[in-house]
Each structure stands twice: as C-alpha cells, then as structure tokens.
Amino acid sequence: MLCVVDLKASGVGILLISSDLTEIFQLSDVIAVMYGGEIVGVFKPEEISYEDIGLYMTGVSKMPRDEVLRRWELY
Fold it and tell me: Of 19, 25, 39, 41, which one has the greatest count of Cβ atoms within 10 A?
C-alpha cells in the first residue's frame, strides 16, 4: 500500500487538508491558506513561517486577491 509520501514522489497530485502545521510544511509543495471560506494566501513552504501562516489562518493577514490568483496560477 502506498503512503502519501510515495504518491507525492511518483508525481500524483494530492490535496492535503490539515490544521497540523508540521504535517503541512513537511508534505506540501504549495500551501493555500483559507479563512472564512476564502483562500487568503498562497505560499511555497520556504516563503512563510509557522507564525505568519497562523496570522493568515486567523484572518489577521490577507494577501490581495490579485496576488492570490497570480500565485495560484504560478505554482
């Protein structure tokens, strides 16, 4: 049986939904943060800290909508 890490290594696209930041940072190529049913930030794991991602998760920070769309298409 394949695990998520094996699937990722084989090139399979995976949608991981989790509140465990360690898991997210270890397994994700791209992190999309949602708040209030809206994607409020899109990042590569190396672009953001645990603390800053928490600000997006709680609605304190929000990326401009055009930047979210640009990054979503870029990554």
Answer: 41
